[in-house]
Design a protein that fits this description.
Helix 5 runs antiparallel to helix 14 and helix 8 runs parallel beside helix 16. It is built from 30 helices and 8 strands. The strands form 2 sheets. It has a 4-stranded antiparallel β-sheet, sandwiched between helices. The chain has a 4-stranded antiparallel β-sheet with strand order 5-8-6-7, with helices on one face. The protein is mainly α and 765 residues long. Helices cover 71% and strands 6% of the residues.
């Protein structure tokens, strides 16, 4: 009976929370105020500080349910996480986040003593001021029709990094709350274990995710997909419980973010995110004490002004110093100069440990309300505000900024020509990942051996089971150990080539082999010592460790080639999990393009995608020269080239091999157009003449032509081919200037002999 009454009480409380949140959210949406603040206000109304505990009877249970709001919110952020996008935005965004975080943390530590708070409160205050609200920023950008603008991409890049910083802050602040002090040793240790956990879960998850997604896609039932995904999210969250539930949920989202069902997963989990996010913000409002809001109103106004100004200045400075235009940097900074959901998570964390002052939550909510209001009012006027500042900026400062950006451009060109950094970047990254994976394998083996020792079921077989477990761990580690050795060898070869000229005595015969072998052995032993030092606490000791190391060496020596092949296979599967999403995105983009164009042309005609073969006579011609409408009656209304769709292309647009023409017409016209485009170019050249051909080459990130000018690349002299057109993103460039700088992922239309084209593709494709 008591259990029934308690269950009924929870259902009653939850219904009150959701009903109140819904009513207030509707009112706030009519008033064009952030719905998140409406949820907080509804929590304030029904919370114990106003209703004296009469409305909500089981507050502790509601707070536990609100944890699901954090989990689903972080899962959503992880689901939107894109490593490729983050990599392209990393440098400038990282500098902005570092400057902003340092500024806000110092602000928190400076303000805390003025309020009579301890240094620990200052850490929490600085942490909650440092993180902007993704749930507020994205709607602001969307409402101002700027979500696809250049500056919005930098805003999103900073927000992604802030989310990662926020997760680290949650882990670090939880440790500080437990120990009561900020110990660097503890921070390093926690960060190390977080690194192990993140790499292990993400690596294994990315290997298994494609298989899991294929199974769920084959079943095709929404209910099974929903249950499986939520179970996966909560399961990964439970694994991360020692660090942060938010971290686990974020990892679960990032694992599923680039899979074929990513959009469907987001759709089926969105209702859960909406419901439990609302519950979370309502519980935040229930923690607010109105008397504290009144008591701290002066400090709230001061912090509101300092946070808005501080975030705009630091983010602008970070982007400007990294080479972005001043206006772009300013516009990217304005919309995110506020605090929101993560600030409440951090404040709630401090209260749950009982280490922060009761006024911290009131300050967090007050500053959030103030900054969101200011930013919402500022964003529509960001352009004129910047122009006003620009007019008042001294000419000398503007000139200095122009010279500084010119210096950065020259420096970037010089650095990119120094190929040593580009060559060692990938193997160094792989060594770091393998280092964390190896430590993770050792940690798991240690955990299971302790479990075996404590289990009464294993009594009498403990030694045999533990020995078997460590042997299995050694075998699993060997593909990654061979990967480490191979990457160290690659780095040494690169350094050798750069350090010594080919004519050097040290680069000849046995001397070279002996020197390389000695340095390789020293490097491998150094890595081994670092690894053993990091994993020492979890490895067996004495004779057992000696036996394990000898066994590992023997197995590596005997099955060296097999482990190298296995390592290559694992790397291939890991990278394939990302490329599958790229292919899927392109197919979806083409399908959306066809649907979009069909919706714009509602007459009794259809659209179709026609492929231009490599040897079609249309290659190299302009749309104007092709005159497709006159010849067939069909109309070209779009071009799909690589991953980009261009609607209503200009008549001057040249056609490349493998272009997909999106044409409009009736069935007969489309058939005529397909036959017309399939005609091969006439072979009119006399026998013995030089045979020309076209090719489309996408410059790889490792291409030696990257960041070279057309003149400096000397393509004609080196390869015997001519560049006649370049595609960069959606932009097509046919008027090529000698000073044009080539970038990675540029698509070059080149003409030359078949042999020369093949050599050019192999060197740069």
């Amino acid at each position: 009976m008591n259990l029934f009454m308690e269950t009924a009480s929870v259902i009653r409380d939850l219904s009150i929370v959701l009903a109140t949140a819904g009513i207030v959210a509707i009112a706030f949406s009519f008033l064009r105020l952030p719905v998140m603040l409406g949820y907080i206000f509804s929590g304030l109304v029904i919370g114990p500080n106003i209703s004296n505990g009469i409305v909500i009877q089981n507050e502790a249970t509601i707070r536990q349910l609100s944890e699901l709001g954090v989990i689903f919110l972080m899962f959503y952020i992880g689901l939107e996480f894109d490593l490729r996008k983050l990599r392209s935005l990393m440098g400038p965004s990282l500098l902005s986040v570092v400057l902003q975080s340092i500024c806000m943390c110092f602000l928190g530590l400076f303000i805390a003593p003025l309020l009579g708070w301890s240094g620990l409160n200052g850490f929490f205050l600085g942490g909650l001021l440092a993180i902007s609200s993704t749930m507020i920023t994205i709607p602001i950008l969307r409402d101002s029709n700027a979500l696809q603008s250049n500056y919005a991409q930098w805003t999103i890049g900073i927000l992604i990094l802030e989310d990662i910083v926020a997760i680290l802050l949650l882990v670090v602040l939880a440790g500080v709350a437990v120990t009561g002090r900020f110990a660097w040793d503890d921070v390093v240790q926690v960060t190390f274990f977080v690194g192990i956990f993140v790499v292990m879960v993400f690596f294994i998850g990315r290997l298994l995710a494609p298989w899991m997604v294929r199974v769920l896609d084959k079943i095709g039932k929404v209910d099974i997909l929903t249950i499986a995904v939520i179970g996966f999210v909560l399961g990964i969250g439970q694994l991360a419980q020692q660090f942060s539930l938010a971290l686990g949920a974020f990892l679960a989202g990032s694992i599923l973010s680039q899979t074929l069902l990513a959009e469907k997963i987001e759709a089926v989990t969105e209702p859960f995110r909406n419901v439990f996010s609302a519950v979370f913000f309502v519980t935040v409002g229930m923690l607010i004490q109105p008397n504290l809001l009144i008591a701290y109103w002066k400090i709230i106004l001061l912090l509101t002004a300092l946070v808005v100004i501080g975030k705009i200045v630091t983010c602008w400075l970070g982007l400007f110093l990294s080479g972005q235009q001043s206006k772009t940097a300013f516009l990217a900074s304005v919309s995110k100069a506020q605090i929101g959901e993560f600030s409440f998570v951090i404040a709630t964390l401090g209260q749950s440990f009982g280490v922060t002052d009761s006024g911290l939550m009131a300050v967090a909510v007050g500053v959030s309300l103030g900054t969101i209001t200011v930013v919402t009012l500022l964003t529509p006027f960001a352009d004129p505000i910047f122009e006003s500042f620009a007019k008042r900026t001294p000419k000398a400062m503007q000139l200095w900024g122009a010279h500084y950006h010119k210096f950065l451009e020259i420096l970037q060109i010089r650095l990119t020509k120094w190929s040593l950094l580009k060559l060692i970047y990938k193997p160094l990254g792989q060594i770091l990942v393998y280092f964390f994976l190896l430590n993770g394998i050792v940690w798991l083996a240690s955990f299971f051996t302790r479990t075996i020792s404590a289990s009464p079921i294993c009594t009498g077989h403990t030694l045999a089971m533990k020995s078997t477990l460590w042997v299995v761990a050694a075998v699993i580690s060997l593909p990654f150990l061979t990967g480490v050795i191979c990457n160290i060898n690659v780095i040494l070869m690169i350094f050798t080539e750069f350090a010594f000229p080919a004519t050097s005595v040290l680069m000849r015969g046995r001397v070279r082999n002996w020197l390389h072998s000695m340095v390789l052995i020293v490097a491998i032993l150094s890595f081994g010592l670092i690894f053993l030092s990091a994993a020492a606490a979890h490895l067996p000791s004495g004779i057992a460790l000696t036996f394990l190391l000898l066994l590992t060496l023997c197995l590596a020596f005997i099955f060296w080639k097999s482990f190298i092949r296995l390592n290559s296979r694992i790397e291939y599967l890991f990278l394939k999990s990302f490329s599958t999403q790229t292919i899927n995105e392109e197919l979806q983009r083409r399908q959306k393009a066809l649907e979009h164009l069909a919706s714009r042309r509602p007459w009794d005609v259809s659209t179709a995608t026609l492929h231009i073969p490599k040897h079609s006579f249309a290659v190299g011609k302009r749309i104007l020269d092709l005159d497709l409408r006159k010849q067939t009656g069909a109309t070209i209304i779009g071009i799909a080239r690589n991953r980009y769709i261009h609607y209503e292309p200009s008549p001057e647009t040249p056609l490349f091999p493998d272009d997909k023409l999106i044409v409009l017409g009736d069935k007969k016209q489309i058939e005529c157009a397909e036959a017309f485009l399939s005609q091969e170019a006439e072979q009119a050249a006399p026998e013995g003449s030089y045979s020309f051909d076209f090719a489309q080459v996408c410059l790889s990130v490792n291409s030696p032509l990257k960041n070279e000018t057309l003149a400096g690349a000397r393509i004609r002299q080196q390869f015997g081919v001519n560049v006649v057109g370049i595609q960069r993103g959606p932009e097509r460039i046919t008027t090529l200037r000698p000073e044009f700088i080539l970038k990675a992922n540029d698509v070059l239309l080149v003409v030359g002999s078949t042999h020369a084209l093949k050599a050019f593709q192999e060197s740069n494709g």
